[in-house]
Amino acid sequence: MSISRSRKLNPRKLAEDVMGRLLLPSWVESSEIAGPGFLNFRIGAEIITESMRSALRSGQLFVEVADNPRTVVIDFSSPNVAKPMHVGHIRSTFLGDCLARTLRFLGHTVVTDNHIGDWGTQFGKLLLGWKQGVNREALRTDSIGEMERLYKCANKSCEDDSALLEEARQELVRLQNGDSENLAIWHEMIELSQKQFDTIYQRLGVSFDHTFGESFYNPRLKRIVSEMEASGLAVQSNGAMVVFFDDIAELKSHPALILKSDGAANYTTTDLATLEYRMETWSPAEIIYVTDGRQQLHFKQLFEIHRRWKPRSSVSLVHVWFGAILGEDGKPFKTRSGDVVKLEDLLDEAEERALRVVNEKSPELEEEERKRVARMVGLGAIKYADLSPNRQSDYVFSWDKMLALNGNTAPYLQYAHARIQSILRKQDSSDEGEVVSGEFSLSMPEEFALCKTLLNFGLVLEAVVGDYRPNYLCTYLYELAGAFARFYENCPVLKADALERSTRIAICKLTSRVLRQGLHLLGIEAPERM
Ligand code: ARG
Fold first, then answer.
1. What digits encode the pLDDT tens for the residues 301-337?
2. pTM, rounded to two decimals
3. Distance from the CA of 271 to the center of ligand 1, in angstroms?
4. Which of 34, 124, 127, 384 is at a distance of 20 to 30 A from 110, taking alpha carbons?
């Protein structure tokens, strides 16, 4: 209809033309033109039944594995050494992990790389602070907290005393020149930070193929800058080396620095070297960067420089950016005292709150079991609250909303899954064989509706990786749980007779598998009971 509008055609006439030329597959039972120019197609029951049967037999959940798999590099999470991971890194971690899982599930080759910030000017002050008085005991119990303190201390004293600021600069220069003492301290800072990050990743169930970090690319920087100067891509400007984008309206007033006037390379130079390394090492078809929206300009510059630098490259570079997490007051999410919220504290609180919900709902479970379920529910709630909104909009962090058992939340979906499991636990062993081999026959509209929703699973996953939007999967699972609830309300399962019974048990099975798989792709576990 929008084509007919833009071309000033009669929409019904256009619909007739289109319909006349379509080659419809045999499983389309009937088709018609309706209203102002809608094309309606009716799918025959047989193809739905056949798809369900084949899913039951094969275990394939309505997903076609890519026949042209591609290699995709995903750069996500990427916290900074000596700084706590905060709620901004949480979104990158969840989004990146979900995209990695989904791409892999669809048969693509995925390389995940945690681009840790382990190099940069902050190390001048960190080294100064460390030498002025590192507290070994504090370093042992909360290393990142201690390093954060050292940095703040040094920063404060540099503000008051320009001699100290100069000293911090010297420390940085010494590090850059390979001074052995500074290198040793720097290595220790990285190792301690990594340990603390790893604890969190383990809790989150997230892992990476590589964690090279920014410093890994240092040996490439000088050469790249000279290459760019020699080719005229970058030019000297006020003592710095700069790339101008005069022909691009958006970037015209935002030239990119690739070498500062003090001779130091920066974030952009490192990202160019990183790109070069990734292309050499994995020849990916696609590289995805997951960071918050404030880095949009950086990635626009980076991608444009790369386009000029490697004009023959066909790699697709994508910045998957996201908005902020807000407190219930609508301002950036902070603790009561105004500090950034640490990921660790957030996870602790999520588990505590989830435990209260589980204690209330399922007092009959053993304590250990309740704790285990609470971990899945608490973490699931945070992940889902993060993944279900459109990633580019800010969202308000609300414990009550994310832990609600009814609503578009992880606990609701986990509960739906657990409920199906409890139905399935009640089936007889004789049901089992019948379900797989037996006849499958749909009659009720709610059965059809649920099965048609199941059929969409693969298409939804394609859309998730096509637009880099896990929220499509969330919406889908929520709809699936809704379709199941309507089915269960209207179609008795265990009390039904023979054919209906085995059909409905089979539908329950498929629904729980898709729910479980879908949650798994979001990085969320589905407990058997809750
Ligand atoms: N460490 C950066 C930060 O915390 C994110 C790095 C993102 N990846 C990249 N290749 N630039 O903001």
1. 999 999 999 999 999 999 999 999 998 888 888 877 8
2. 0.93
3. 9
4. 384
Identify whether the C-beta of residue 308 lies closer than 8 Å to the C-beta of residue 233.
Answer: yes
Rounded CA separation 247/409 (Å): 46
Between CA 515 and CA 481 the distance in angstroms is: 8
Angle formed at CA 118 by CA 117 and CA 124, multiple of 5 degrees: 115
Q: What's phi and psi for 223, nearest 5 deg?
A: -60, -40
Q: Which residue intervals of the chain bear CATH 1.10.730.10?
A: 343-521
Query: What CA–CA distance (Å, rounded) separates 167 from 160?
Result: 13
Does residue 124 have a pLDDT over 80? yes
Atom of ligand 1 nearest to the CA of 302: 11
**What is the CB < 6 Å shell around ligand 1?**
75, 78-80, 115, 117, 271, 274, 289, 291
Residue ranges in 362-497 assigned as alpha helix (H): 367-387, 399-403, 410-425, 429-437, 445-455, 457-467, 471-490
Q: Mean pLDDT over residues 394-410, rounded? A: 93
Residue percentage of the chain with pLDDT more than 90: 84
CB within 8 A of 440, min separation 6: which ones?
Answer: 49, 52, 53, 56, 502, 503, 506
Query: Can you read off the two tokens belonging to residue 175?
Result: 């590090």
Compute, in angstroms, the gap from residue 307 CA to the centroid of ligand 1: 20
Task: Determine the length of the chain.
Answer: 530
Question: In CATH, what is the architecture of 343-521?
Answer: Orthogonal Bundle (1.10)
* 182-231 pLDDT tens trace: 999 999 999 999 999 999 999 999 999 999 999 999 999 999 999 999 99
